[in-house]
Inverse folding.
């Protein structure tokens, strides 16, 4: 599309704000708090690097941490459908709390992350 990548449209500053907001909400969610580390600074740094590339920007995660292997990296954590919904609810709230990201881009981000979140589910009834 001639609109450019999602990364180009939202820019690095808005993406960083989104990730920061997301990781202030995650430890406040009762379904998510138990599986995340107390210090979320490295987690947030990795997520920002990952999303930068995922949305069409420079491949920062690859450069710093190697192949993401996202599903494998999530296997040590019990991720139920309920937890995937909780993760997406935090992302949706973070998007709403980040006015620098226009509604159309917010919807696109949410849709893209919803598709990935489904694949992280590794526990619970099928
Ligand atoms: C890491 C949970 C979905 C990207 C993690 C960690 C947890 C977690 C517990 C480890 C944090 C740490 O030890 O630093 C979840 C849950 C999800 C979910 C419950 C619900 C479906 C996603 C999605 C993405 C994603 C959809 C990407 C679009 C990442 C990345 C890391 C990570 C990049 C860092 C991996 C690394 O250690 O290098 N996640 N996650 N996660 N997650 Fe998720």
């Amino acid at each position: 599309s001639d609109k450019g990548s999602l990364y180009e449209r939202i820019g690095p500053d808005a993406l960083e704000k989104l990730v920061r907001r997301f990781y202030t909400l995650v430890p406040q969610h009762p379904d998510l708090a138990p599986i995340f580390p107390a210090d979320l600074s490295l987690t947030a740094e990795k997520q920002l690097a990952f999303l930068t590339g995922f949305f069409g920007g420079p491949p920062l995660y690859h450069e710093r941490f190697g192949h993401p292997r996202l599903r494998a990296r999530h296997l040590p954590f019990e991720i139920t459908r309920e937890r995937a919904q909780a993760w997406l609810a935090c992302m949706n709230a973070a998007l709403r709390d980040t006015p620098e990201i226009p509604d159309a881009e917010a919807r696109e981000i949410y849709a893209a992350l919803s598709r990935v979140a489904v694949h992280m589910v590794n526990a619970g009834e099928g």
In short: The domain at 10-120 is CATH 1.10.490.10 (Globin-like). The helical segments are 6-25, 41-54, 60-65, 70-74, 81-96, 103-120.
